[in-house]
Design goal:
The structure holds 2 protein chains of 2 kinds. Chain A is α/β, with parallel strands linked by helices. Helices cover about 35% and strands about 20% of the residues of chain A. In chain A, helix 5 packs across helix 9 and helix 7 runs antiparallel to helix 9. The longest helix of chain B has 13 residues. Chains A and B meet through loops of A and helix 1, helix 6, helix 7 and helix 8 of B.
Chain lengths: ~270, ~110
């Protein structure tokens, strides 16, 4: 059976890579990404499952699944011309993605599947840091973090639990890293741009540090998420990942003004 | 039907370079291809971000108006425009950081 060797969560600030080139060694995000990267390296994964919310690049209102498994052989991104990071080709892992899809359906998760993907910055920025040169294959799992109505956070948590069971039931020997892409809470282009809901960020951090993951999922209603800014639905990706970590507490966790960085180890 | 159509125009603006070029060159011709109400058409072409926001256009898609500097919207006026029609909120004070400037892509 395969093994979950590491779980992590990181944000995907599109400007970070550019800012690092302007003032190397000065950005807090650079240091935190490095910290997560070191743990990923130590865990020696063979494959990454990344839980992410597309920002209207791969999906649009014409067809927008609550949950979708990416099963493309490879895909390119970021597609956004305004995102100043290198454009990559990211390899998928079709057999494992297909098996996950089937396992999910049998576990009563009516997942969608996408055999072609246009990757946005939210999928690629974490990989730029955590999967340099894109050497590891990546299976994207998309949650609808932005287009109301959002999936229930408790359902995302259950999805994460199913992911863990799938990983442990999979016949391969892969060492798997599970990564959440996104912030805890933020407003990036709505009327509250620049404001951080520090109370909500602290609530999230406290629940995570104590390992009270299901309690966090119960607290994270759509109303609460939306009140924290237009980008705050990315918390659903974190909650999905916490569904997979069981009782393990994070090795480290940093709220960083709503951005959020954390690592869980399982060896 | 419609807020969907406004969302779609903004989605295509970001994801389809040929569409973006056409929209910039001949906006009225392109907008006729969509089923917009007069109110939506006028809000869009006058860059009334706040009105579009109140109508329910998604903020992520509204962002493309300043990114591509469409209909008079730019990085400097986006925030004040999206707040038009809203009651004053003290959180605006913290939100007054400028909208991020990106290096423009080749297309």
């Amino acid at each position: 059976m395969a093994k979950l060797v590491l779980a992590a969560g990181v944000p995907h600030p599109p400007r970070l890579v550019y800012e690092m080139t302007q003032s190397p060694g000065k950005m807090r995000g650079e240091a935190l990404m490095k910290q997560v990267r070191e743990q990923v390296e130590k865990a020696e994964p063979d494959l990454i499952i990344e839980v992410d919310s597309d920002h209207f690049v791969n999906f649009f209102y014409n067809n927008l699944p609550s949950f979708c498994v990416g099963m493309a052989e490879e895909a390119e991104g970021p597609q956004e011309t305004w995102c100043p990071i290198p454009r990559y080709t990211v390899r998928g892992h079709v057999p494992l993605a297909k098996a996950l899809f089937r396992y999910g359906v049998n576990a009563k998760f009516d997942l969608a599947a996408a055999h072609e993907l246009r990757l946005d910055h939210s999928l690629v920025v974490p990989l730029h840091f955590l999967n340099p040169s894109m050497e590891l294959p990546v299976i994207p799992i998309y949650t609808n973090g932005f287009a109301s109505p959002l999936p229930l956070a408790t359902r995302c948590f259950a999805l994460g639990r199913m992911l863990r069971r799938f990983i442990e039931a999979w016949e391969g020997k892969e060492r798997i890293a599970l990564i959440a892409s996104g912030c805890f809470a933020m407003d990036v282009g709505g009327p509250l741009r620049g404001w951080t809901d520090t109370e909500w960020v602290k609530t999230i951090s406290d629940f995570l540090v104590r390992g009270q993951y299901h309690a966090l999922a119960r607290r994270a209603t759509e109303d609460r998420i939306n009140a924290a800014g237009n980008n705050s639905g990315e918390l659903l990706n974190w909650i999905t990942v916490t569904g997979a970590v069981g009782k393990t507490k994070p090795l480290f966790l940093e709220g960083d003004e709503g951005s959020g960085y954390a690592v869980w180890k399982f060896d | 039907m419609s807020v969907y159509q406004v969302n779609k125009i903004l989605y295509l603006t970001d994801n389809d370079a040929a569409f973006r070029k056409r929209l910039t060159a001949e906006p009225e011709t392109v907008l006729k291809e969509f089923r917009l109400t007069t109110e939506e058409h006028d809000a869009l072409t006058s860059g009334a971000v706040g009105k579009l926001y109140q109508m329910g256009v998604h903020t992520f898609l509204l962002n493309h108006l300043y990114r591509y500097e469409l209909f008079g919207v730019n990085r400097d006026n986006y925030l004040s425009r999206i707040r038009e029609g809203m009651k004053y909120d003290p959180r605006f004070e913290q939100g007054n950081m400028p909208v991020q400037r990106f290096i423009k892509g080749s297309s």
